[in-house]
Design brief:
heterodimer, A: 244 residues, alpha/beta, 6-stranded mixed beta sheet, 4-stranded antiparallel beta sheet, 9 helices, globular, B: 319 residues, alpha+beta, OB fold (Dihydrolipoamide Acetyltransferase, E2P), MetI-like fold, two-stranded antiparallel ribbon, extended, binds adenosine-5'-diphosphate, binds magnesium ion
Chain lengths: 244, 319
């Protein structure tokens, strides 16, 4: 489903060169849930943003369903419609109602009729537990509700893969659970997911595989059991000791 | 200021200062022995035009009948041709049965016409409106160019903005009319509107650029991550939000343009200011006319400000 090959992203600015992502390769199979962990600044966000081309990278390739997103002939908008993304800061459209947040891209990108898009949107809003808020503007919702709307907005495109970049990091602690529950349901339904998170409980419970990144490199990759019981690398051990 | 501070003493002070100012101006004006002729001003807003209705052929008056304040006169020519004309009832000069020759006056009609102050205001308004529309289009394009990733595109827009903002509008109007206008044989209205639009466009470009950049980067990323193209994201997500933010400075810019448009009077476009000057040459009511012209600009700009204020409140719903 996703295949990343030697992805390298270099930021240059004010004379400093940062290899934010440094030769990372991995694959995510259909139905698999992969959790990416690592200290702040280790390149997790940059890496996940390379997967849907929000960040264009200097070296390497990313294949979505076999299509190389780096290829000039690839229509990146088509690819992105297949790859849902959920951001730390929700990024809902503040000038649109909850329902419009969910229908806009369906109509613009998937070319669905308004009625069809609204039916789909309402079904998803019920699914994420905010069916009664469709006419509210995002600013009227709590953080947890906003993030669930953001998840529903991504799902409305019928993506093949969902990417999550620290979806619960901006939330008050009491709202983390409601968002994680939605993500767990998705995972159980067989959605292919790549999740950057600091929620180790989620990683242990839901992940099929865990990636540990540090300083732009993928240091270790394995099952949750491997990670939380017997990590191999010293840096992984150190990190896990700090967060657990 | 605390909540218990009284506001009325300050209002009183304000009123006192305004009265003193008015008295001061009044006092100085009476010392120079100026004869005020306010009664001459209204005719420059609206005047009653008199038009003589003449007989179109030799013939007789067949019938005169009243129709409200008007009189309807039926004329018959020598060949039996009939024609009805309407004149003001009090001015009728013929009776039924009178013989008439071609060119005889039957009576008069009166019509209210716009005086130069109103036609000038109208010119000012449409010139400002047309310049605003083009200014907005130019500004939108230049503003988008300024945030382009392409160096050439970005720099071209920057040069345009710098040149316009760094030179006086009056000089720009002269160049537009006497130089560019001469080379390309432009009508004075085209040159005037072009100069105003390019002038406004440069300021609009800056307003739009900063408006777009004030919208969080995450909005663009969210839209693009859903598969929307760059133009789609701009039209549906970024510009509507930016528009709400730039509405106050943008409308301020267009309201300024109404005032700035008075400069086109130098290339003989008969706008409100030019009309004022023309009236003064024939009436010498210098003080009255300039005060009236100023008041007319002020009324237009404050009505627009109020309208923008209303729009802002309506658009605030979703915040
Ligand atoms: N737009 C950018 N410009 C320059 N440097 C950046 C940019 N985005 C991220 N970086 C740098 O890249 C590195 C990785 O950042 P990031 O991917 O956000 O890490 P993480 O998500 O793991 O906290 C950091 O050193 C960060 O400072
Ligand atoms: Mg991050």
């Amino acid at each position: 489903m996703i295949k990343a090959e030697n992805v390298t992203k270099i930021f240059t600015g004010r004379g400093v060169v940062v290899r934010a992502v440094d030769g990372v390769s991995t694959t995510v199979d259909k139905g698999e849930v992969v959790v990416v962990i690592g200290p702040s600044g280790s390149g997790k966000s940059t890496f996940i943003r390379c997967i849907n081309g929000l960040e264009m990278f200097e070296e390497g390739h990313v294949y979505i369903d076999g299509v190389d997103i780096v290829d000039k002939k690839t229509n990146i908008n088509k690819i992105r419609a297949e790859v849902g993304m959920v951001f730390q800061q929700f990024n809902l459209f503040p000038h649109k109602t909850v329902l419009e947040n969910l229908t806009l891209a369906q109509m613009r990108v998937r070319k669905r009729k308004k009625k069809e898009a609204q039916d789909k949107a309402r079904m998803l809003l019920v699914k994420v537990g905010i069916g009664e808020k469709e006419n509210e503007y995002p600013s009227r919702l709590s953080g947890g509700q906003q993030q669930r709307v953001a998840i529903a907005r991504a799902l409305a495109m019928d993506p093949k893969v969902m990417l999550f970049d620290e979806p619960t990091s901006a939330l008050d602690p009491e709202m983390v659970g409601e968002v994680l529950d939605v993500m767990k349901t998705l995972a159980k339904e067989g959605m292919t997911m790549m999740v950057v998170t600091h929620e180790m409980g989620f990683a242990r419970e839901v992940a099929d595989r865990v990636l540990f990144m540090d300083e732009g490199k993928m240091v270790e990759e394995g099952t949750p059991e491997h990670f939380f019981i017997a990590p191999r690398e010293d840096r992984t051990k150190l990190f896990l000791k700090q967060v657990l | 200021m605390t909540a218990t501070d009284k506001v009325w003493p300050w209002k009183l002070l304000l009123a006192g200062i305004l009265i003193l100012l008015a008295a001061g101006i009044w006092g100085s004006v009476s010392r120079i022995d100026y004869e005020w002729r306010w009664y001459r001003v209204p005719q420059y807003f609206l005047y009653k035009a008199e038009d003589a209705i003449k007989t179109p052929f030799d013939g007789v008056v067949k019938e005169v009948s009243a129709s409200g304040r008007d009189a309807v006169v039926t004329l018959a020519s020598l060949d039996g041709e009939q024609q009805k004309v309407t004149v003001d009832g009090e001015t009728i000069k013929v009776d039924a049965g009178d013989d008439l020759f071609e060119g005889d006056t039957i009576g008069f009609v009166y019509e209210w016409n716009m005086g130069p102050l109103l036609t000038g205001l109208w010119t000012t308004l449409w010139i400002s409106a047309v310049s605003s529309v083009f200014g907005l289009i130019i500004g939108l394009i230049a503003g988008l160019m300024k945030i382009s990733k392409n160096y050439t595109v970005r720099t071209l827009a920057a040069i345009y903005v710098e040149v316009i903002r760094g030179t006086p509008l009056l000089v720009q109007i002269f160049i537009a009319y006497f130089f560019i206008g001469t080379v390309f044989n432009l009508d004075r209205n085209v040159a005037g509107i072009g100069a105003l639009a390019l002038f406004a466009g440069a300021y609009v470009a800056e307003i739009i650029r900063s408006g777009i950049q004030s919208i969080a980067k995450g909005q663009m990323e969210a839209a693009r991550s859903l598969g929307m193209s760059l133009p789609q994201a701009m039209m549906d997500i970024i510009l509507p939000q930016a528009f709400k933010r730039i509405l106050p400075p943008l409308s301020g810019q267009f309201i300024s343009l109404i005032k700035d448009s008075s400069l086109v009077s130098v290339i003989a476009i008969t706008d409100l200011t030019k009309s004022g000057r023309e009236i003064i040459t024939s009436t010498f009511a210098t003080f009255e006319i300039w005060l009236v012209v100023a008041a007319m600009y002020l009324i237009v700009t404050s009505v627009l400000s109020q309208f923008v204020f209303y729009l802002e409140r309506r658009y605030r719903v979703s915040d």
